Amino acid sequence: MKKLLALLLLALPLAGAAKAPDEEDILRRTLDPASPFYYPNLMMRYQAGETALTEEEYHYLYYGYAYQDGYKPFAAAADMEHALATAAATDLNDPSRESLEQLITAVHDAQRFDPFSPKLLNLLTYAYGALGDERNEQRCFNRMNAILATIEESGDGLKEGSPWHILMFDHALDLLAAHGRYPGKARIVSRSVEYVPLLEPVRTEQGRIRGYYFDYSRIYRNKPDDYVFKRPRTWQFNNLRPREYK
Question: Domains in the chain: how many in total?
Answer without folding.
Answer: 1
